[in-house]
Amino acid sequence: MSFLRKIIGDFGVKKTRLILLTILVFFCLSGSAGTENFENNFAEPFNESIYSEIEAFELYAPFLDESQVNGTGTFFEVNNNNYFDVTLFSLVPISATLLVTGNMIECDIESAPDENSSIIIIFGMVPLATYYMYEDSYRNLTEFTANSNGNYTYKQDLSKPHHVWIQTSPSTYFISDNTTGGDCEGRSIGVWNPATKTCTLTTNLNESVEIESNNIKLDCANHSITGSDTGYGVYIHQKEGITIKDCTINKFTTAIFISNSNNNDLLNNISTNINGDGFRLLNSYKNTLINNKANARAAGFFLQGSSYENTLVDNVATSCFTGFFLVGPSYKNTLIDNNAISNISVNIYLNRSNENSLISNTTTSNQYGIYLNDANNNILIDNTLKLHSMWGIVLRYSINNILIGNTIKSNNTGIFLYYSGTSHQIEYNNIVDNINYNLENNQAEDVSVKYNWWGTNNESEISAKIYDYFDNSLLVELLILTLG
Predict the structure, then answer these.
(1) pTM, entire model
(2) In what order do the strands lie in the sheet with 243-245?
């Protein structure tokens, strides 16, 4: 009854009736929601076989977009994704992104100019299981038990943006700029140097680490941070000048998560057995990632939201679903000398992400090398793409991209164009020894592919490995001039 009185006090009788009616309707509609046998309080086992059924043209956002939804409204539903189904209902319209990965529910909620708060209902959890909800920081913990239908209701502040997440076990160590470095020496996990604001670990950790102050350096000194398949290994929110180095991070949903932060460095870190993303940046800019290694169930390196002018150099993504994933409106990022090897679907994937530079990267041994979907004005120079079972480079609904000096060899098809216009600069590439076609043009617009090397100067041999007007009269003839 005290909760009911509080709602009446906050919202008045009329709105309270609407709230209670809405909750009742959703409880009825939810039925036995959440009664399936979930692993680790959440997810059914991952079924990789479903990906063999996806036709190549329909690969909009492999794996990751299926686990999230964003927009403005009152109803957000993540269904049929690779983890578990979750629904979020808000009493008033909100602008939000709902993300489901591993054993976590994450929600980024924007401020609402006309509302101070809203009642939120989350559906899809295990009935009567205990969960841990955080807002913006691991300091802000709400422990709760899902009801008998697997649902939870709470009041959400809308006066400013919030990052909210729910996980299945609590954490955390805190590193702060004070006399002990927070928990660095406060809980005897490392040595604190106040002059350089550096915490150097002296032991392995079994909980998350949150960086609470600007200009902190966390030197793991090759120690490990190991979780319980939920939460963030290292969490950085609204910070700058942070350095994380020489850490091995295991068994979290995300190894290192940088949110709304800039001018931070990730150096020589390793993520293994991560059931979400290895290294993830959200709405963050001018960060530098050098010589990190990712092994993760989703993306090895994931740049989302308005993440721009970040630099990734000498990183490696292997055995992930997607190696490097940039989703719009991420833009003006630079990837140099990275390696994406034997990832399940796409090695480097740009989805609605513009004006990025991909230089001297190497991708091998999966379905797709570099995949641009609705991605414009990007530069691809001196990349090597080999041994992909589908295409080396895909341009799909993408315009004004530059491809120069790339080696595209021994793939099923070298370059694939689909509704991507005529404005690309595709020159001085080495496009040879691809099994089906060196270049496949599935559009009706003229495309110039001058000055590329096709492995021969014999025009009939070149034409035999190119799919265009001569194979389908609905298409056009490609303008081809060889390098003599």
Answers:
(1) 0.86
(2) 190-193, 198-201, 217-219, 243-245, 265-267, 288-290, 311-313, 334-336, 357-359, 379-381, 402-404, 425-427
